[in-house]
Amino acid sequence: MYLYIFLFILGLCVGSFLNVLIDRLPKGESILGRSYCPYCKKKLEWYELVPLFSFIFLKGKCRACKRSISWQYPFIELTSGLLFTFTYYLLIVNNQWSPVNFLFYLFFTSLLIVIFTTDLKYYIVSDKIVFLAIVLALFYQIYRINQFSELLNPIISAISASVFFYFFVGISGGKWMGMGDVKIAGFMGILLAFPNVLIGLAVAFLSGAVVGLILVAMKKKGLKSEIPFGCFLAPATYIAIFFGGEIIEWYLNLII
Question: Model-level pTM greater than 0.85?
Answer without folding.
Answer: yes
